[in-house]
User: Fold these one by one.
Assistant:
Number 1:
Amino acid sequence: MNAGGGQGGSSVSDEEWERFLRESADGVPGAPEEPSARARAVARRLREEPARAEPWRTYTPARPRRLKGWYVVALLAALALLAVALIPGRVTGWFGAGGGTGGPLATESERPDQPPPTEAARRPTPDEPFRGSPAARWARGTAGITVPAARATGWMSTAQVERALGRTRDFLAASHLDPGVLRGERPERAIALINPHQQDVQDFLATAFRKPSGENDPLMLFSRFDEAHVRLVGDVVKTRGRITYREGGQGALRVTADVTYVYPVTRATADSDEVARTIVRRELVLDWDDPAKVITKPGTFSFVSYKADTTNGGCDTVTGYFTQKFAAEQPVAEPGDGPGADPYDRSASMAERMREAADEECGTATRS
């Protein structure tokens, strides 16, 4: 595959991308505050690619599905402390060799078979914004995203696959970790990697930042916070997830990125020290197409689908930015609010998660 970088009229050199990737690996500013509870789920699917080559791919948007949750952290924390008292040896084993929660987790090589254990109920602080959450043991920035070894697949050689996987990780960094994008700037580096001939996606991009709506919400693809209301805490975003790939239609390299991002934030006012967290799990499926079969620009990919499941990012409002609730603003959970969903649980696929949320406008999150 051609190693060219820029799209839509902009050109990005390999050296610039490598420098940007190194900077992103150190994490990015931002994250919300303590247990608050709004979860938002949005799913988009593209139509299956026809047997013949197309000038671009088009998509059929799915009905937006949103989750808004109230946290039930206190009960879960009490149960966890009771378990520690009754069976300390068994509970210690949950945290891996060495015991305790202090050590970093190994990177995720496959989907886990259970959610992470419940942490002791400790409120996050500006100095420790991930305290009391599983993300305290996660890696920062792109270091938390597992990239597999490359092998020749579809129309691509091993070297081309390796480059495409690296560029996929670059897109994740440019759209979900870049400090400027998190502050609300237009994600030019990320957009430069999207096939400019995928017209419906280009139309979405042209509208989403100018006039956000339920159908054209930039949060479907990018993480953005409104600096007028909140500011990111520190310069670290915690991540956990992985990239996988296989051969797609017409010999394309089909890449799937399934990653959870944890952003700590505080109110924009200078005297605020309460920390809340916004947690976003995203699944992006994209094709690096064979230019002999599909009209594309070398060095760019086409979207197949994108899904997002967001906790404490806003449920019933569309502003183009995540909107957070802090502790005092949280509603009280009622008995009929349902069992709730764990935003740190990566044991279910995103398809399962979307099916569970399909009938809910706003649901319940069990922790932040």
Note: The radius of gyration is 20 Å.
Number 2:
Amino acid sequence: MTLARPELDPELRALLAEMPLMAELNPDVLAQLRLLPPTPVEPLLEGRRVDRREVTVSGADSTPIPLSVLSPAGTGRSTPAPCVYWMHGGGMVMGDRFSQIDIPLEWLDLFGAVVVSVDYRLAPEATGTTLVEDCYQGLLWISEHADELGVDPARIIVAGVSAGGGLAAGVALMARDRGTPAVAAQMLICPMLDHRNITVSSRQYSGTPGVWTREMNEFGWRSVLGDLTDEQVPGHVSPAVADSLAGLPTTYVDAGSAEVFRDEDIAYATRIWEAGGQAELHVWAGGFHGFDALFPQARLSAEARRTRNDWLARVLAPATGV
């Protein structure tokens, strides 16, 4: 039985109708998707005064983890900059450090932020805590090299979209539990937070082609969890099952009303409030998964991005006077 679904925003519905949608995601389809050319970052850097630096850090098992550092050029800054640490989307199984990089580049433009993006290892080749550990090691590197980067260690923000949003949440939990480094805020854009796939919204977006369906979500989680049973899944990997969400930095969560992750994202923000934390939640009426990344020119997308930018301006205002 197909459940009723919220209507799509009319403009987004027309744009989506012109986009080929995946009917399924399996090992063969994933192999084909990985043959596609990687995301080019150079066109996004054209016209921007940006210094680009490529570095490599050691993962917890000494595997090299690439980071890209994008900094405003020629600013003559007298005070340390905020830093946005970016984790890309792709269902834990695809994408690279330049996927959706246009989103944090807006924050480089608006706030003079240094953007660091991580190429964490992907499932199913990497499983369990490997992905979030890779991301955590990048956060440690940023904190340890803050002076060199011209970054204020008290204004490091972890951010990500979809799977990257889930990893950003996992990194914030890991930093809290290990006591270092300090994270000033977390920006979770339509985050992938719950491996259980049991919400109403996950069941609403099942059985038909889409941007990201319940079946695709199951494939992504099976790929990253490997042989782990439900009882063995740690909160750092699936943040929705973390024992406590107390002590987390101020948090922004958003999602579309017409997507798999809607209900788990609402539940995550609610649990932060229940634990006495601060979270801002936006559910965009008629938005499907990743709508503002896929179609940034749409009116709803522009509003979603503007609202996130306004939140970041408020978060940074006490220290920067923005």
Note: Residues 9 and 137 are 39 Å apart (CA to CA).
Number 3:
Amino acid sequence: MSDEEWERFLRESMAGDTGAPVEPSARAREVEHRLRSAQPQGWRTYSPPRPRRRTGRYITGMLAAVALLIAGLFPHQILGWFDDDSSAKPTPTAGPDTPTRTAPFRGSPAAHWADGAAGIRVPRAKATGWMDAAQVERALQRSRDFLVDAGLNPRVLRGEPPKKATALLNPHQKDLQQFLRTALTSKSPTPKTDPLLLFSRFRPEQARLVGDVVKTRGHLTYREGKRGALVVTADVTFVYPVTPADDDSEVIRTIVRREVVMSWDDPAKVITEPGTMSLVSYTLDMTNGGCSAPTGYFEPPFDTADKQAADESHRIDPYDRSKPINTTDNATTKNPNCATATRS
């Protein structure tokens, strides 16, 4: 701007000429900003990109997880897609409920049961009959000891004599002592003299336990009996995972539920020895232990037709403990204690 124009601008401004520039008001500035914002951008103008959501990574991760899941559920099918050898035979696989040497209780309710003696619950002791609370507690522990030796002792399971268990039995109970002599020595036991009625045993040359764990579930109860005796009832289920003695081709679970009624008699009223008991009764249900004539040992049916040899009229769920043991004799089977399992 020249000096003449600048002087004219100052004179007009001081005189209040409406042609002089006026500072726009705040409202005018706001309106002008809106108008400029509404104008379309030029094709060369730069506009910063909006931040994008990282959906690509999430989709990629989800697809990878699904692929891993499919590969885990169907590994052999996945491998077959890349196998050019059409003559290769598929590798046999174990089903999700098939027991194996590393998981002998897989697919069985017993997988969640306690191990060994821990699964046999003992009630709180209180004075009953001729015994005070301390004596009742001792009798309950000895009753449990009998079950542990008879059904869990590794030596007894291999066929050795159940010395601890028999030492707890009243030597003056003649019928029981006769049963023990016959059952533990006879090579051809009958259904009434079968040692399996009281003791769990496997023939070492035919079957052996998988690992050293036997699953159990059961309890003891007690009441006052005749002549003030303490009557203890045991109801316990034992689950034995076994495999053939000469190979590891198959794992079978032999399931045995026992009910044993024991009487701790008052020595003042019954002829007995201190620390021993008399047996009132003993029954069992057995599945996958063999259904041929008694041999004195459980004989798991490894890959044999004996799996279907049980009487179909005597079908049980060996894990169902809500019902009492079926004590009805099965005249159609050689082994009346054998039942067909609805699951194992």
Note: Residues 55-73 form the longest helix (19 residues).
